[in-house]
Write a structure and sequence with these properties.
Length: about 250
Amino acid sequence: MRLTVLGGSGAWPTAVQACSGYLVEYDGFRLLLDPGYATLPRLLRHHTVDAVDAVLVSHGHPDHCADLNPLLRARGLREDPPPPLPVYAPHGALDAVLALDRPGMLAAAYRLHGFAPGERFAIGPFTVATRLLPHFVPNAGIRLSTPGGVLAYTGDTGPSTDIPRLAEGADLFLSEATYIHRVPDDDAPYLLTAELAGRYAQQAGAARLLLTHLWPGTDATAAGEAAAGFFGRSIDVALPDLVVTTAS
């Protein structure tokens, strides 16, 4: 299983970093995970829009799904549109982004598959297990399993005993780490620190930790060092075009 980082900035994109977005590939199947702000141009550095086989969204905040709109426009408005794109998301999570265009304009470009966090299903060669994790809106923690490895992804989440369960034994644990040491009090139930991500990775027995969703301007090296205080294995920060390959 191969993961390419398209973006890992929390809240808004910067001049050098798109928001959350990851291309996960296995056995020739390309799954776009969380097409946040500014991820489409990054995707186009690697593939054409018709190379995406499916989209999976953790929750409905625009820094995780806004670029679904230009992706669907690029597919659906061309003279030779590809088949409808399967899109998986928690029920209602994409209502706003899918309403950006006039009704029906992009209807033929996608097929929406809503799910409730906690459900299991298949997308191509991926077995998908989801868990409801705490955030400002319903958020699905995601576990992707293939014969080539296991990827666990928090989406955006606050502290939860379900996080190490989601990531148990994962080859790659992709964890939000908006802050380094401390989340502001009002947001503390809904976001993580790099320190907590390290703790959860250690509890889960994950093989590798990839920190993402850092607040814009956060020192990536400092975030990695904070996580390393609790997790003694490989740690990376989600920076543009980073490629991580897993194998069981």
